[in-house]
Amino acid sequence: MKNRSSFRRSALTSGLGVLALVGVSLPASAVDFEYSGYLRSHLSLNLSNNTSWRNGLTEDSIGGEGELSMARFSGKIEASFDFGAFQIGSVMRATEDHLTGYERDLKRATFLNPVAVTNHALTPAHPLFALAGLPAGGAFALPLGAFLPAGPPTTIDALNAFSSYLGQAGIPLLPPLPCQTAAGLPTCDPTPFTGWNGAFVGAGALSDYTGDYDDDDFHDIMRELYVTFDVGERFHFKLGKQQVVWGETDFFRAMDIIHGYDLRWRSFLELENEELRKPLILANVEIDVPEWDGTLQLIYRPGWDEADDVGNRGALEGGRWAPQPWGGAGVTQSIIGPYNYHAANGDADDANYGFRWSGVWNQIGYSLSYWRGIDNDGIVNRNPVLGGSSSYGAFGSAGNLTELMFPMIETFGLSMNAYVESMDLVARAEVAFTPNKPYNTGTDTFVDLFAFGLGCTDANFGADGIASCPAVPGLLGAVEGAAGVPAGTFGSTAPQDLYDIAVLRNDPANLAATAYDPLTATNALMTLSVPGLGPVVEKDTLRIMLGFDKNLNLMDWLGTQRPSFWTVQLFDTWITNFDKDDDIVDLFGFGAPKREHSTILTNAITLNYDYDTINPGLAVGVDLGNFDMFVIPSLDLVFGDHWRVRLEADIFLPRHSKTQNLGFVEDDTRLLGTLDNRDQLVARITYQF
Questions:
Q1: CA 190, 194, 199: angle at the middle one, nearest 5?
Q2: 2-110+207-374+407-443+536-688, which class in CATH?
Q3: Which of 84, 168, 240, 494 has the fewest CB atoms found within 10 Å of its own CB?
Q4: In the chain, domain spans
Q5: Is the dihedral of CA 204, 103, 194, 627 positive or negative?
Q6: C-alpha triplet 590, 594, 600: angle, nearest 5°
Q7: What is the DSSP code string of 635-652?
Q8: What pTM value is reported for the model?
Q9: Residue 113's closest CA among 145, 138, 66?
Q10: Which uninterrupted H or E stretch holds 320?
Q11: Judging by beta carbons within 10 Å of its beta carbon (0-12, 13-18, 19+), is residue 328 exposed, middle or buried?
Q12: pLDDT digit string (tens) for 595-626?
C-alpha cells in the first residue's frame, strides 16, 4: 500500500511538473510569477526545571532552568506561476532544529524518569525474581526498553540471561529484600509497595526524537504543491497538496478537522496555524451559486499521502513538549505501543470526503458542512491479550500493550458570524457534532506485565475477567526445586499449571471480578498502573465554540495608537449521552475522568503603539473545570519592511498535575496539567521578503 501511495504522489508531482514545463514554453509575457517568504529563527529558554520522582515521593530535577530548549532555523518560500489558463502554487519550508544541551539531557533521561511497578508478595513471582537476582516481594524496576529480542523471559534460563543483560547494560540491581520464615517456608515481606524507583522493562524506550522537528527531505520541504484552474464562471478547481481551513479559531479547534496538526516542536503555541497544520493531497472544488448568495465546496482526499501526514502528532517520543512526566520516555518505541496508521477502523490510505456550503443570509455569514475522515485526536487500541472483546478492531502491533490509531468518523458542522451593531462587535459560533466518537476508558486500570509477557490471550480470558496463562512445562517444578521447597508450594502440583492471574485489572465493565488494590492484592505477579486500558466506548460528541471580536478604544487610558483588538472564545466539548459509569479517561496514561463538559475559555488582546511598530499582547486560557491556566504575554516589534521580532513568555499554571513517576496512581491530571514545568521564554526573529 505504501508503494502504491508513493507512486501516486510521484505521479502527482510529475503531472504538475509537466504543466510547469508547458507553461514555461509559453512566451515570458504570458507567465506571471510571484513569490514571498521568510528566513526565521526560534529560540526558547526554559524558565523551570524538568523533574522526575525517583521514588514517587522525592522530587528530583532533571534540570533545564535557564537552558536553551529550542534553537530552530527555518526558511519558507511561497511561489505562484500564473499561466492564464491555469496556475501552479507551491509552499516550501526547510527547517533545522539544533539539538540543545538540555534536549541531550532529555534523551538520556529515560533511565532517570522511572516507572513504578509492584512485585506482589506471596505469589509465584518470588522465586522467579529471586533466581534472576532481583528483589523478591515489594516493588522493583528494570531499565526502560530492556526487553530481550525474544521478548519477556518465560523460563529460568531466560530469566538468568535477562539478569545478565541488565548487568551488561550497567544497571545496578538491588539486593533482595529481607526475607522471613513463615510456616517453615522461605517467604519475603508480604506487603508490596509501589514506591520503589527505577526504569522499567519496556514501559518506555530511549527517547529518539532528533529528526522529529526537521523538514529535511523533499516530502516535508514541499509542504504544498497544487494546480488551480476554472471551468466556466462557476467552477473553481484546486488539485494537489494543500491546506483547507474550515473554521476560524485560535488555540483549540471545532471545525478545522480536515488536517491533523504537528504539535511536537511548538505544542499549540505557534502564532500561525498553517505552520503546524499537516498539508494533504486533496481535490478541492468550489462551485459558486450566486442565486443563493453562496458557494458549495467539495473536498475529496484519495489517500495518497504519507501515513503520518494524517492525525495530530504529539511529543510522545520525548522532547521539550512531551507531557509531564514523560519527558524522557520514547513511548511509541516502547512496549506501550507504536502508531498504527493502517488499522482496520482507521486506515490512512482510505479515502476521505466532505462538503461545505457557505453563504450569507440577512447579513449573517454561515456555513453547513459534513466530513467523513480520520479522527485527528486518535485513540489507544489495546492488545487483545488484555481482553479481546474490548479492543477496537483488529490489532496490528503484536508484542505491544497498545497501539495508537486514528479511527474513521463523521462530523456535521455549522458556523456563523455576524456584526452586532448594538455592541460594536463581531459574534462568532461553531458547532461540530460527531456521532459515535471513540474514547478510551479505565481511570484505574492495571496490567499484569508478567501475565502479558507469558502470553495470556483471548482464549484464556474467562467470563470472570481472570486469565490462565499458557502452559510452561516444568516451570514451577524448576522454581520449587531451586528454592528447596516442596512441590505445590507456589501453585498446583501439576507442572504445566501456571497460576490464574488477571491480565487487566479494574476493568469498569467487570469491576466485581477484577477489582484490584495494588497494596493488598496477592493473585497477581507484577502490575503497572496504565489508565485508559479499559474498553473503547463510542459516544455522541458536540464541540461548541462561542466567541466575539471587538476593537476596544483604550487610547485615552493606555495611550495606544488606535483601538485595540480583543478576542474571546469559549470552547466546550459536550458528550451528549454521557454516562459516568463508562469511566472515560480525559487523557490516556492519566487517571482523571472525562467530564460531561470540558470547557476552556481563552481571552487575548493586542495593543498598538508607534504606528503599529510596537505591539504588546496578552493571551490567557483557563480550564473552567479545574482552573488550570496558561498565560502568554508577548511583544511584537516591526523594523522596516523586512524585520519582525516576537518575544513571548509561555507560562503554565496548572493546579493539578502528575507529580509522581509513571506507574503511580493519580486521578486529576488533565490537558494543561501535562504542561507543568514547561514554562519558557521565546524569541522569534523573522526576515521576510
A1: 125
A2: mainly beta
A3: 168
A4: 2-110+207-374+407-443+536-688, 118-193+446-529
A5: negative
A6: 100
A7: EEEEETTTEEEEEEEEEE
A8: 0.81
A9: 145
A10: none
A11: buried
A12: 999 999 999 999 999 999 999 999 999 999 99
